[in-house]
Amino acid sequence: MNQLIERLRIHPYDLPLRRAWGSARGGFDRRRGWLLEISAGGLHGFGDCAPLPAAGTETTDAAWNALCRLQTCVAGRTPDNCLMEMSDALAATPATRFALDCALCDLNSRRLDLPLRRWLADRAEDQVPVNAMLGPLERITPADLQMACEAGFKVLKIKVGLDDPSTELVRLTDLAGRLPPGIALRLDANGAWSPDAARRWIDGLAGLPIESIEEPLQDPDPDRLAALQEGADFPLARDESLPAWSEHFDPSALGVRRIVLKPAVIGGLVRSRLIAEHALVTGIQVVVTSLVESAAGLWPTAQLAAAIGGPIPHGLATAGWLAEDLGPAPQPSGGWIHLPRTAGSGFAPHV
Ligand SMILES: O=C(O)CCC(=O)c1ccccc1C(=O)O
Ligand SMILES: [Mg+2]
C-alpha cells in the first residue's frame, strides 16, 4: 500500500507578472522557481519552490542547493516518512521544505482519495473567503476599488509605506471615504514606519473602515506593537517579522492580535496548520497568504486555508498577478475560492 518514492523531478520555470509587484520591501516583475514532481506507485504529487528572500525565505541559490540534495536522496523513501527524514537537511530552506511537503501531501491525499484539505483536517471547509490584492496605494484609483467591490470582495488589500506617511494618509483617507458600506481595507506597511508615523496613521484612521494593518513597524518590538495595538480598534498583524519556526512558538508574545502565515516562509503546510491551531486557541487571528506563487503552490496553500477555516479573508487572490502559469490556478469568485472535491491539491500541470 505504501509504495516507495520512485523519483523526484525538478522542472524550472520563469513566469512574467501582468504588472510589477511593489511594496515597502521591494518588488518583482517575474516569479522564478521549480515545480517539484514526486512519483510513487503510478501517482504524482506536485509542489512549488519559489523563494522570495524579502518575505523571509532562503535565497534562490540556497533553494537550488537544497533541491539538488533532495534529488539524490528522496527516491526509495516512503511518502509518509520522507519529510521527517529530510527535515534537518531542510531546516534553513523553508521554501524548499514547503515544496517537498506540498508534493508529499498531494501524493498522500491522492493515495487516500481525499482532497488535500481533508487530509490536513477532517472538518475542513470547501471554500475560503479571500481578499482582493490591489497593490501599492499610489497606483490605486477609485475605479480599481469599484471593480474589486463589483467582483464581490469584502476586504481590499493595499500596500502602504512606499511614500511619505502624511501624503499617503491623505490619499488613503480619500479612497476609504469612497467605499460602499460593508467593504473594508486591509493595509500592509511591510515594516515601513517609525513608531511615531505608525501612531499618527492609526489615529488618523479612526472611524474609517480599516480591517487590519500588517507589519506597521520597522522595528517589530513586541512591547511597541502591543502599545500600538492597544490604541487601534482593528487587529495589527505580524507577517515577515514572525520568528522562525520553533516548537516553542508563543503566539501571545507577539504584541499583535493577528498572524499572517505564508507556508513557503514557515516551511510547509503541516507546520503552518500546527501554528494556526496554536494561535487560534490563544485568541490570535490567523490569515494564510500566498507568496504570489504559481498554481502549483497556490492550490495547496488554499487547501491549507480551508483546513484552518474561519471567517477572515485569506490572501490567496493572487493568480491574476501572473501573466502565465504552470496550470489552471484557483480563481476567486464573489470573494471566495471554491475548492474541488477531487483528491489531492487540485493542481494539474498544463500539458
Ligand atoms: O495577502 C495577500 O493578499 C497577498 C500576499 C501578499 O500580500 C504578499 C505576497 C508576497 C510577499 C509578501 C506579501 C505580504 O503580505 O507582504
Ligand atoms: Mg504582509
Give an account of the 3D structure:
By secondary structure, the protein is α/β, with parallel strands linked by helices. It folds into 2 domains: 7-113, Enolase-like, N-terminal domain (Enolase-like, domain 1); 119-338, TIM Barrel (Alpha-Beta Barrel), CATH 3.20.20. It contains 11 helices and 12 strands. The chain has helices at 60-73, 82-86, 94-111, 116-120, 142-150, 165-176, 195-204, 222-230, 263-266, 269-281, 295-308, and strands spanning 7-21, 28-40, 43-49, 127-129, 132-136, 155-159, 184-188, 210-214, 236-238, 258-261, 285-288, 336-338. It has a 7-stranded parallel beta sheet. It has a 3-stranded antiparallel beta sheet with strand order 1-2-3, sandwiched between helices. A hairpin with a 6-residue loop joins strand 1 and strand 2 (28-40). The radius of gyration is 20 Å and the shape is globular. Bound molecules: 2-succinylbenzoate (OSB) and magnesium ion. Magnesium ion is lined by residues 188, 214-215, 239, 260. Magnesium ion binds next to loops. It is an enzyme of class 4 (lyase).
